Amino acid sequence: MSAEHERIVGSVRSSTQKLVGKFGEKIDSLRRSSGAIRSLIREGYSADKALFAARSLFGGSKVKFVAVDGTMAQDRQLDMIIFYAGAYAYQGELLFGWSGCRMTGLNEETTSASISSAIPIYEEEESSVAGKVTEGGAEIDPARLPSSLMRLSEYYLAMKTLESDPSVKVALLDRTLAGDFGHLVWGAREWLESGHSIMEGINTPFGTVSESDLDLARMLIPNKALSLPPLRSQFIRYAIVEYLISAGKEISEDELISAISKGGEKAERIRRELQRLRTDYGLLEPGEKCRLKPQAGAYWDRVFFAAKQVAGHIFETPPGEHPLIMKIGGLERWICSDDLDLVSLFVLQRLLRLSWGNGVLLVGLIKDTMAYELARSVSKVLTATKKVRFRGSMPDFNSDKALLQNYSVVEAKSLNTPWRTIEYDSCFRTVIPLGDVPTAGHGVKVMGAHKNVISNERTFIKAYIQLWHSNSDPIIRSHVFAYDRPCYPGLDSHGGVILIHEDGEGRNTIEPVLECDEGSPVADLVMAALSSMAGEVIPEALGYNFPLFLADKKAKLVLEGARQTYLATVAYELAKSRLDQQILFNTKFRDFRSEIEAIRRG
Is the pTM here over 0.85, yes or no? Predict the structure, then answer.
């Protein structure tokens, strides 16, 4: 062995020893903090509470469910790129009873459904659909387009299923609902300000979609029982619009301030937002009184109609047309990645509205996540409010999942499955606690994790779960997963913990959902449903979700067959074209060089 090799081996050995030692220290800290971590965990579930929640939410104990998963691909054929995305669903039934939940009817052929789209484009058009304009020019991210297409296909298929069959009351998706929602809301702002959205200008039976329509739909998801939107920070303008829509009459500024603001607080900010609604957005009638223009209240009808039109064009493309080219106002325009994300946001909002209005349990199951809000935000807030007493600090793992997965093994003999962590508001993913003691009034001071912005509270709720372990050796366990779901008025409670947030214009009070003592019956409903789907004796599905596993396998199987078909079709159409073949076969120099090098090596 040469001196250089000896040096490399020695460096790798010492580095590995250091990492193993650090991991051993983390495991020791897990044992020291066992009591604190255990206080965040709830073993089992109550079948009685699950049955109560089922009857309250669904109106009965026997319901249909749909499980949706997606797949995507990206291939290059000469100077063309072919994007593929599709979603596949399996349906069955859930029966809730005094002894738990049972899944039936999954193996019938009629229980599957799908949507998909294969989309070819020339490389020179890549910037039109997968490009993002920056200060340095157009940056192209080819992987973003199939990812955005797959996300839209999953949400669109779930929505179509729920709309076409009202007896489907449980929808499972293999993705994070709250994470997607936050990302899409944030990303849509810059896109809408650019004025390039393909949805702007679409004619609908309710009028033409405007930029202000899209902005309202992006942020305004009203639910009076959950006090949404909240009167704070970035939501004040939308709270004003929602109140005026509900009021349906003109009122004075003072009456409005009194109606939506406790004790007249935030009066100055409200007056400023009213002025912006008049001048910048043109949503208010002229005059001293406050009244929305006649068409303003139908913003959601216009936006949702346009979103369905765009999604339908992509996945149900009319003959002779391209899935990503739509004619708007007589002009052909590309549907780009930003448009796909915007449509996905509105389809997800439709799913949220169906959950609240039609009594649907919407669950996103998250396999792998690097989130750490439970350990770094939720636990600190609980400590500050004396709800949980931690001995020492929380172990320093790089994610909640890593912490809980290792803890479940360390405490395997005493920790039984199924278990879940306490449920907490998804807004905690954007919260940073500023102290270990409550302020006057028993609130905990916090700030936003990015630009001091805190996302919607009382919209989505999250928890971690582990559903299976071996009876012969409890150390052998399934993975820890996470789920998120909508917050349901009347079943989920809030107000037990108060967060105090200062955003430069005053103090905001945030009342998130946070399980401190007795949990929501919806948590038992979710645990009952997921536990009934996690016992299939297949290694990669054990402790996960069998219907989603089937949907994933179906997606990959269909993709394998479809890929050969659409690539062969593209090759045939190129071969029979009258274009100069040398133009068609002009690959990139990098690709040309790789081909020659491969031939030489062979």
Answer: yes
